[in-house]
Design a protein that fits this description.
single chain; 137 residues; alpha/beta; 45% helix; globular
């Protein structure tokens, strides 16, 4: 069963959903949002959640605080990808996909009538970004 919804307060919605019983999450967020979601991510990963995160940024530079956070997440088997793209950063079309069937997005996608088509599109978009990004290790 595919379902989706849009929220202007994406971070709090993702935090709530990360506390629920999911097996997998794919997040496309910026570096600031990663800090805000870190506590919920740590809790979810400790409860056997598999997480993939694409962090969208405007540069390759990372603060020590961010490097340490990413290192701690990577040590817990979270896959983190770093994507430098100013257009994506400005557009702020961030989202989370849970168990490849539930989408929470910040911006409305008017071109889709059915939930399955939208979620498959976002999943393909996420996978393409992950392939095109630098995997942190």
């Amino acid at each position: 069963m595919f379902r989706f919804y849009y929220s202007y307060d994406l971070i709090s919605e993702l935090e709530k959903e990360l506390q629920r019983d999911h097996k997998m999450v794919q997040l496309m967020i910026d570096e600031y949002d990663l800090f805000l979601l870190s506590k919920a991510l740590f809790e979810g990963v400790s409860n056997e959640l598999t997480a993939e995160v694409v962090v969208v940024s405007t540069s390759h530079k990372k603060s020590m605080k961010l490097v340490n956070l990413c290192k701690r997440l990577i040590d817990l088997n979270v896959q983190i990808f770093w994507k430098v793209d100013k257009n994506l950063f400005v557009k702020e079309d961030y989202f989370g996909i849970f168990d490849k069937e539930y989408l929470i997005s910040k911006l409305e996608q008017p071109n889709f009538d059915d939930a399955e088509g939208l979620i498959r599109f976002k999943n393909d978009f996420f996978n393409g970004l992950a392939l095109d990004s630098k995997k942190l290790s």
